[in-house]
Each structure stands twice: as structure tokens, then as C-alpha cells.
């Protein structure tokens, strides 16, 4: 059934879906991924807010209503994965189940409900998997990962692929609310005491703090809305330390319902916002990170990454995701690689210096350059903008996502770029802004020359010298040169300040 529903083109048709069920202290979630890959794509994602960790600190037991909600959710998830034909299923449980006296009894009932063995993660293993999730989804991370759940906070050092020793603290939102008896002042004291002893934070000063977990994502979502931020994607959202501390202190002081734009946060999550803000604020004051980076990837993504081979881990997930989208949506998959080589030659001919990061972004843009062709011509730029700004890309920060968006919109809309230029400009340095405009114009020339069909660009060369933009075309393809094409080439020349010349080769 899945093959018919989800995997209808090329290699995607051979994909075997993977499901992970995460029994957390606040929610129970099922995520079904298209396949085990370097750029996993969720095809189904559902959570039920069960509150298993509510009251565990004071009573020592999982609440009966939470247990019933969780078991009901697990029975539904079992039916869903069976209906979807998913065979590769992993089920995990975390802090609340780990700490409760009736945790073993719940695990037994849960395994009967889901009909699978459930792995009860230790705090250290939970920290490791969360860090692997960040490694899988953040390009070259360097800092401390903090995963704030309902029952605990896991902290672990990460330096690219190297992980430190993880620790777990009883500072999850539900646990802190319970231990403090809903007193904000008492919660601050508890958080300060626990965080003061957290050894991984000794190494955080001047590095990034990677915030994982639903409560911190909700805080970031609220912060984005209040800033009128131009992107809606949560992953890799970066907040400067002072700004994050000020915002956290604001959330601590106010009743959640009094906070502006609170409607962007679910009603079930709102009571935990203040406790998440307290923990974040204490980490900032204790360890002085250079910035806070939100990671949408955590334990579940870490579990997938942990199963990959060394060779698979080495794949760039941004390029992998771009290739997947090209295979699914481009009119002629394979054209993107030809465009990459064509633009590579153009950049090299002008001795344009590029960083490794700029090159990978340019390559991703080439792969994504034709994904909107099925839309009406007037709406292709908007379609491309939506895919890139809202797509589940990882290993790309927000300025880089803005670069991709602008380049691909300009490939469709030309130099004007409509509203995209204004909305993306605020996220880009002048250097990236100029590069995006040039790349969009070059891809626009390549498209009109080849109609996005493979087999044309490799026979032509676009290059620059000191005073001229040159296009060399074999005589057999000379009929492709039209007045419209010449005007488009001249538009690129004007953008880079060069005259244009077309050479027809015998």
C-alpha cells in the first residue's frame, strides 16, 4: 500500500519506511519516515499529550489518566503502522517511565498494546541520541546540546561528530512544575541549584547552545512571531544570547495568557512555557553561550542517524534532500547535475572566490532550480519559494535558506524577484545577497538555453574575462539562440557589469 501512496517515482519507490514511537514524559508520538537515509523525510507525524510525567516527582507514580491516554495512543499507533505496512518499528520510553515506581507495569501494558519490545533509555543514552540528532541536522555543530522534555533535561557536549559525556537533570517542564508546586520563585531556585552542578556547561562559554524539545520550540515560535520573522521554519532558528535571556525573563514574569501572540502556542504547552524559560535563562547566566540555536532534530532523528553506516553519514543531507526533490518534482532529473557543472565553470572562469559553504548552497540551488515547473508560470516563483522556505531541509541555517530561496525565485521571476527580495534581504549579508542574484540570473540563462533538458549544457560554456561575458555554443545548437535568449544573456551581463558575446563554434 505504501508503495502506491508515497513512493511513486524512481529510487523512492524502493524505499522501506521506518517508524519510531517515542513515549515521552509529556507526549507520546509516532513518526513514520519515508526511509532510513541521510535526509529522512517524515510522511506521518502524530502526537498525543498524555502527561505521563505529571506528578511523578511528588507521587512517584505515573498518573492513571496519563497511562490510559498513552495506552490508547499506542493501540492507535499499532493500527496505523499495520495499515501503512511499516515493518521497521522502534519504540522507546524516557524519563517518566524510567523514574516511576509503576513504570515496569506500564511498560508491560504498553508492550502488549503496541505488540513490540520497548527500549527504556537511560538518561545518558537519551543525551547521546539527542546529540546525534543534532549532528545529523546541524552542519558542523559545536557546543552543548540540551534536550528539555517533560521529565528531564539532558545535556551533552558535541563537536562535529564527537560527543562528550551526557548528564541528566530533573528539570523537565512537568518535573519542575511538580517539584516547585507551581511556584515560579521556587522553580528558579531548583533550576539554579541543578544547573550549577552540570559539568557539561563548564565548556559552553562562547559556543552554541542547541535547544531541543517541544517547550523550547514553542518559546522560539513565540519569539519568531513577536519579531515578525520572515521565515516560519523552526529548525536552526538562532537567537543571540542577550535577546534570548531578555525574552526568557519576560515569559517567566507574565502569565502565559497575557503574552502577546500566545495563540501560536498550543493550549496544552502554555503552562510549561515559564518553566522552559526558567531553565534556559539559568543556562544562559551560568554558562554564557554565544547564541541559542533551536534544533527540531533530537532523539528520534538520532536513532536513525545511529543506524547509518560511516559512508552514509558522510553524505551531505542538504544535497541529498535536494536530489530527492529533484527526482520527485523536476521535469528531467539529471539536469541539476549538468547545471552544477555549467555554473561551476562560470564561477571558476571569473576567479570568483567561494567558501565551501557557498559552493554547497550553490549546488543545492542548481538541483532545486526546476522543482516548480508544474505550477502555472505566474505562480512558479511562489511555488519555489514555498518549497524552499517551508521544506524539511536540514544542515542549513536560516541565512542559507534565504539564499536558496532568493536564487531560485530569481531564476523564475528575473531580476525583480517580487516581494521575495524584500522578505529575504534582512536575513542575508550583502555578499550572499549579491551571490544569490547572480546565481539566479545564471540559472535563468541556462534554463532558456536548455529548457531544463539534459544533454545541452555540457556542450556549451558560459565564462567571463576582464571585460566580457562569453557564451560558446556549437553550431549544431545555434538555432537555440533567439532574441529572447540574447536579451536574457544581456540582463546577466548588466548585473555583473560586462558586455556580452555569443560565439558559435564549428
Set down the secondary structure blueprint.
Elements: H1 2-5, E1 18-23, E2 27-33, E3 42-49, H2 56-59, H3 64-84, E4 88-93, H4 95-99, H5 103-114, E5 118-120, H6 123-137, E6 142-148, E7 153-159, E8 162-163, E9 167-169, H7 173-179, H8 184-196, E10 208-212, H9 214-227, E11 238-240, H10 241-253, H11 270-287, E12 291-295, H12 299-306, H13 310-313, H14 317-329, H15 335-349, H16 356-368, H17 380-390, H18 398-413, H19 419-425, H20 430-450, E13 461-464, E14 468-474, H21 483-496, E15 499-505
Parallel strand pairs: 1-4, 4-5, 6-10, 10-12, 14-15
Antiparallel strand pairs: 1-2, 2-3, 6-7, 7-8, 7-9, 11-12, 13-14
Helix pairs in contact: 3-5, 6-12, 7-11, 8-11, 9-11, 10-11, 14-16, 15-16, 16-18, 17-18, 18-19, 18-20, 20-21
Shape: elongated
CATH architectural label of the largest domain: Orthogonal Bundle
Give the terminus-to-terminus CA distance.
54 Å
CATH-defined fold name of the largest domain: Hypothetical protein af1432
Find the count of extended strands (DSSP E, 2+ residues). Answer: 15
Amino acid at each position: 500500500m505504501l508503495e502506491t501512496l508515497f513512493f511513486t517515482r524512481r529510487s523512492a519507490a524502493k524505499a522501506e519506511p521506518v517508524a519510531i514511537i517515542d513515549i515521552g514524559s509529556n507526549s507520546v508520538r509516532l513518526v513514520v519516515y519515508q526511509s532510513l537515509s541521510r535526509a529522512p523525510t517524515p510522511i506521518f507525524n502524530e502526537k498525543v499529550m498524555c502527561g505521563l510525567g505529571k506528578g511523578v516527582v511528588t507521587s512517584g507514580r505515573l498518573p492513571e489518566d496519563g497511562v490510559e491516554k498513552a495506552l490508547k495512543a499506542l493501540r492507535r499507533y499499532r493500527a496505523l503502522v499495520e495499515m501503512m505496512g511499516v515493518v521497521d518499528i522502534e519504540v522507546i520510553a524516557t524519563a517518566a517511565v524510567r523514574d516511576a515506581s509503576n513504570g515496569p507495569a506500564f511498560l508491560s501494558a504498553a508492550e502488549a498494546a503496541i505488540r513490540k519490545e520497548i527500549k527504556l533509555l537511560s538518561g545518558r543514552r537519551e543525551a547521546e541520541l539527542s546529540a546525534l540528532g543534532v549532528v545529523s541536522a546541524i552542519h558542523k555543530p559545536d557546543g552543548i546540546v540540551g534536550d528539555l522534555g517533560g521529565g528531564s533535561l539532558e545535556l551533552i557536549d558535541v563537536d562535529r561528530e564527537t560527543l562528550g559525556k551526557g548528564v541528566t537533570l530533573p528539570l523537565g517542564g512537568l518535573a519542575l512544575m511538580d517539584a516547585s508546586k507551581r511556584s515560579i520563585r521556587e522553580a528558579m531556585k531548583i533550576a539554579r541549584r541543578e544547573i550549577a552542578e552540570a559539568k557539561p556547561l563548564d565548556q559552553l562559554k562562547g559556543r552554541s547552545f542547541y535547544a531541543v524539545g517541544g517547550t523550547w520550540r514553542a518559546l522560539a515560535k513565540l519569539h519568531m512571531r513577536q519579531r515578525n520573522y520572515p521565515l516560519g521554519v523552526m529548525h536552526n532558528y538562532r537567537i543571540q544570547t542577550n535577546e534570548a535571556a531578555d525574552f526568557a525573563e519576560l515569559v517567566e514574569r507574565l502569565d502565559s495568557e497575557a503574552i502577546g501572540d500566545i495563540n501560536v502556542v498550543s493550549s496544552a504547552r502554555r503552562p510549561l512555557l515559564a518553566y522552559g524559560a526558567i531553565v534556559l535563562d539559568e543556562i544562559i547566566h551560568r554558562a554564557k553561550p554565544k547564541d541559542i540555536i533551536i534544533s527540531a532534530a533530537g532523539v528520534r532523528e538520532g536513532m536513525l542517524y545511529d543506524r547509518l553506516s560511516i559512508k552514509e553519514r558522510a553524505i551531505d543531507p542538504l544535497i541529498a534532500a535536494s536530489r530527492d526533490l529533484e527526482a520527485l518534482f523536476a521535469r528531467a532529473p539529471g539536469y541539476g547535475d549538468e547545471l552544477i557543472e555549467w555554473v561551476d565553470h562560470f564561477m571558476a572562469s571569473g576567479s570568483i572566490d567561494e567558501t565551501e559553504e557557498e559552493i554547497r548552497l550553490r549546488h543545492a540551488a542548481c538541483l532545486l532550480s526546476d522543482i516548480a515547473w508544474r505550477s502555472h508560470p505566474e505562480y512558479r516563483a511562489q511555488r519555489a519559494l514555498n518549497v524552499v522556505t517551508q521544506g524539511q531541509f536540514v544542515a542549513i541555517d536560516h541565512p542559507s535558506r534565504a539564499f536558496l530561496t532568493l536564487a531560485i525565485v530569481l531564476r523564475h521571476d528575473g531580476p525583480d524577484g517580487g516581494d521575495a527580495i524584500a522578505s529575504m534581504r534582512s536575513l542575508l549579508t550583502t555578499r550572499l545577497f549579491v551571490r544569490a542574484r547572480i546565481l539566479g540570473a545564471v540559472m535563468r540563462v541556462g534554463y532558456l538555453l536548455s529548457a531544463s533538458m539534459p544533454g545541452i549544457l555540457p556542450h556549451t560554456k558560459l565564462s567571463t574575462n576582464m571585460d566580457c561575458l562569453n557564451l560558446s555554443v556549437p553550431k549544431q545548437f545555434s538555432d537555440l539562440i533567439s532574441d529572447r535568449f540574447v536579451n536574457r544573456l544581456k540582463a546577466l551581463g548588466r548585473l555583473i557589469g560586462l558586455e556580452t558575446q555569443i560565439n558559435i563554434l564549428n
